[in-house]
Protein 1
Amino acid sequence: MSYIYLALAVVAEVIGTSLLKSTDEFTKLTPTAVVVVCYIVAMWLLTLVLREMAVGIVYAIWSGLGIVLVTAVAAVYYKEIPDLAAIIGMVLIVSGIVVMHLFSGSMQH
């Protein structure tokens, strides 16, 4: 269940972060409320994941995947296309997550 909770936490964080721009500096109520709810849900789900996984590993996966997915959402919805350096950086982030998952003694499989 930990990986399901972690995936849902990532999705909630990506939705919340992707909507930050539409809050218009927290002056629009609906997107602001969605952002707050998404962050609360993401944090709650992370607490469930932390029952079984190390905090450093969980945070690395959550934040790394969040970076990549928020960048993808921004490219589609806001036309903020990452340059080559950003893409290389994200590949390195994902590579680091894969290395941790496959080789770290801190990971529960």
Protein 2
Amino acid sequence: MKLVLFTFVVSLALLAGPGWADARDDLLAADRAFSDLSVAKGAHAAFLAYMADDACLYEGRHPPILGKAAAADYYARAEAADPAYPSSQLRWTPLEARVSPDGVLGWTRGTWVWRANKADASSKTVTGYYVTEWRRQGDGHYKFELDIGGTDTP
């Protein structure tokens, strides 16, 4: 009887465990690819590429940005107002991910670094932290629905 119970428990662990680990690894990989795109194409382009249509963005300097269309408008105005935007770079590192048992919902948290060149040729660096909530899409890829970030104390 103990052997049957042991075999059953081990079988369940083998079936369930890797799925959760795979989903967590997929989510971490998505967040890393998101950061890589930010470095390669700019933060705004990366956010729009990985953002769900109904996403909510909270960064603390203004009211929440609700929806991808509103984010695209906000980014366009921000880029037009800041000629130094093309020289800026936002990079982040996910430190942890958790996923629902079915792998559909999950979140990542980590740290970020933003660097920009100023008009006087000096540079500015700001660091912070974030939490991003993700949903697996019908095509199997993750898009984020909620992103919350804050800056470290200077």
Protein 3
Amino acid sequence: MSTPERSIWDPCAPVPGAPPGFTMRGTFPTNADGVEVMLERWEAGAFEPPHSHPGDDMTVVVEGKMVVQHFRRVGDALEPDGEPLILSAGQVGYVAAGRVHDARYVEACKLIYVHNHAFGFIAAE
């Protein structure tokens, strides 16, 4: 199957304050009980530092490969919580609201990201 010149992935645009290598195309909110859906593109080698989101989220990997590491707080430090989760095309990952995690994009990725309620990015300090 060939990718058309213009697809649902265009126009993805940079988001102010987001990590380098990230562009997205989002939806328009319709109600307070809805979800926010984004079509994301990440460049190979891009990295999201440890962070959390205010709602549960689901990521569907359409193309590429990414690695997600969950963390737990131990005093003032973050420690890995379990083995890294490697997601490739066709796989789905879930992260619970408030769970600290990072993401590394091993290959260029196209993702469908679904966030419960309005999206938020909370840097882990």
